[in-house]
Write the structure tokens for this entry.
Amino acid sequence: MSFKLLSKPRITAGIVLRPYVYFRWLRGPYRLLLDRDILGLKYIAYSPGEGLLVADGNLKISVYVTREALKIPDEYSLTVFRVYRCLP
């Protein structure tokens, strides 16, 4: 699924904790469903600078956005849709 929507995605699993806000946004194929269903183990597919997809174990998509959907200028696109980590 992620290979059809994103170019050369990297895929990882992660635990999504409670978001700061809950909301639902749908526009065409794009979606941000940050409701109570976003909590828990999710599969995260991302193409740095291009887009992001978050799905649960049943492959229900909670988040699918791209640089084009958010209208991010090219000069900033390389900093989005990446996994950032800090060491303690």
Q: What stands out?
A: The mean pLDDT is 88. The first strand starts at residue 10 and ends at 16. The CA atoms of residues 14 and 42 lie 6 Å apart.
